[in-house]
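Pipeline run #58 for the internal structure catalog. This entry was flagged by the ingest filter as a single-chain record with no existing model, so it goes straight to prediction. Upstream metadata was stripped on purpose; only the residue string is passed forward. Reviewer on rotation: M.T. Logging verbosity set to normal.
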Amino acid sequence: MTLQLYRADAYLRETPAKVIAVNERGGIILDQTNFYAAAGGQPGDRGTLKFSGGNCVIATTVYDSTDKSQIVHVTAEGAPRPAIGDSVTLALDWQTRFNLMRMHSALHLLCSLVKFPVTGGQIGADEGRLDFDIEDASAVDKDALTQALMTLVSANHPISERWISDAELEANPGLIRTMAVKPPMGSGKVRLVVIGEDGAVDLQPCGGTHVRSTGEIGAVAVSKIEKKGKLNRRVRVVFI
């Protein structure tokens, strides 16, 4: 099992760890990590794994395909690899991670403004998008959404987390906004991301990394609203 340190501190840039396995494809599994494993539309982290034999470039991070309790650090082609039992230091590509955190939080704000079910999404370091189940295109306006987003950003609302039980989530299905991706359940508890005091701005299950306040998101804008089907409207958000 890989201890997911980013759950407790998304700002942890470096951490020591120990190699517990190397899979048949050369992916490195550690006892703990500050690297986010790709999930929920957020890409896996990249960076550097430092050890006595050199520096190993991590191209991305994913969950093990057969054991979701283990996180695999995928090495760049030709990179040196540590051996099982080696002590290492993980260093994030921090600027990319921080931009992903900012964009992920911005998309939660967008979700709070567009009161329709979410059918898909993708988080990028420069641009993000959410797809909504909307029949009437006039229900969303690019300029109005941009203004509303920046109002929430400028208010510098706190962003925090809290945990509820699986049973509490089942009793409150309205917390789940995404139609295609359901929050992970089965461990007995579910993480909620809370924006604003007591979730006044937004409150929903999420396993991703976020900034600590909306002010850290910075200037954003809705760049485009696209029709992707009879009921699907894709709203794109960019940093400006």
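catalog note: Helices lie at 94-113, 142-154, 166-171.
catalog note: Residues 52 and 158 are 41 Å apart (CA to CA).
status: ready for reviewer M.T.
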